[in-house]
Design brief:
Helix content: under 10%
Structural class: mainly beta
Number of helices: 2
Number of strands: 11
Distance between the termini: 38 Å
Order of helices and strands: EEHEEEHEEEEEE
C-alpha cells in the first residue's frame, strides 16, 4: 500500500496541490528517486465556492478515466489504464454540473523519472446522473509508446443504495493493443 502526505493551498479560484511519499527507487539512481511528489498540480476553478462549473488542472496527476477506484490491485484499476504509480504530466479540463460531468485529459510520459507507464495520449470520461441513485458513464483512452498503441473504450454504471449503505459499481472496457513490430 501507499503512504502519502498531502498538502494544498487555495487562493480564490486557484489551488496548488502537492503530495510526498516514498516510491520504488530507480536502479542506478536510488538516493534521488526513493522519495517523490507523485501528484503535484495547479488547478483553476470557475466557481471556487461550488463543486460545479469549469475546472482546469495542469501538472502531474492520474488521468480522469473510468471508476477511479482507490484500491490499486482491483482489475479495472490495475489493467484498465490507471495503475498504481501511473500518474503522468498532463492538462485536464472538466465541466461539472448537478446532472453530468465531462473530463478531457491530455498527458505525456514523465520526462523526469523512469515511470511505471511509458505512454503519451489522451482520455475522455463523461458521466450522467439518471437519478440521484443511478449514474452511467462513457470512457475512451488512446495512448502510444515506443512499443505499442493502446485503444480503450468502455462504460461505467453506479447504483447507490443508501438504506443498505451500499454502492454497486461496474466498468466494461474494450481494449485493443497494437504492438510495433519494426
Amino acid at each position: 500500500m501507499q503512504l502519502e502526505l498531502y498538502a494544498s493551498a487555495k487562493f480564490d479560484s486557484v489551488t496548488v496541490h502537492l503530495n510526498f511519499s516514498p516510491r520504488p527507487s530507480q536502479f542506478g539512481n536510488r538516493a534521488a528517486t526513493s522519495v517523490w511528489a507523485r501528484e503535484h498540480y495547479v488547478m483553476w476553478q470557475q466557481k471556487p465556492d461550488e463543486g460545479n462549473g469549469l475546472f482546469v488542472r495542469l501538472g502531474r496527476f492520474m488521468p480522469v478515466f473510468g471508476l477511479r477506484l482507490a484500491e490499486h490491485p482491483t482489475y479495472t484499476r490495475r489493467f484498465g489504464g490507471v495503475p498504481l504509480y501511473g500518474d503522468t504530466y498532463g492538462l485536464h479540463v472538466a465541466y461539472m454540473a448537478p446532472k453530468f460531468e465531462a473530463h478531457a485529459t491530455g498527458f505525456l510520459e514523465d520526462p523526469l523519472i523512469s515511470p511505471v507507464v511509458h505512454d503519451t495520449g489522451g482520455a475522455v470520461y463523461t458521466e450522467y446522473r439518471v437519478t440521484e441513485r443511478f449514474q452511467v458513464g462513457a470512457e475512451a483512452m488512446i495512448t502510444r509508446s515506443d512499443d505499442d498503441k493502446k485503444f480503450r473504450y468502455g462504460a461505467t454504471a453506479k447504483l447507490h443504495i443508501p438504506e443498505a449503505k451500499l454502492l454497486l459499481q461496474t466498468e466494461f472496457q474494450f481494449y485493443n493493443q497494437v504492438i510495433n513490430t519494426t
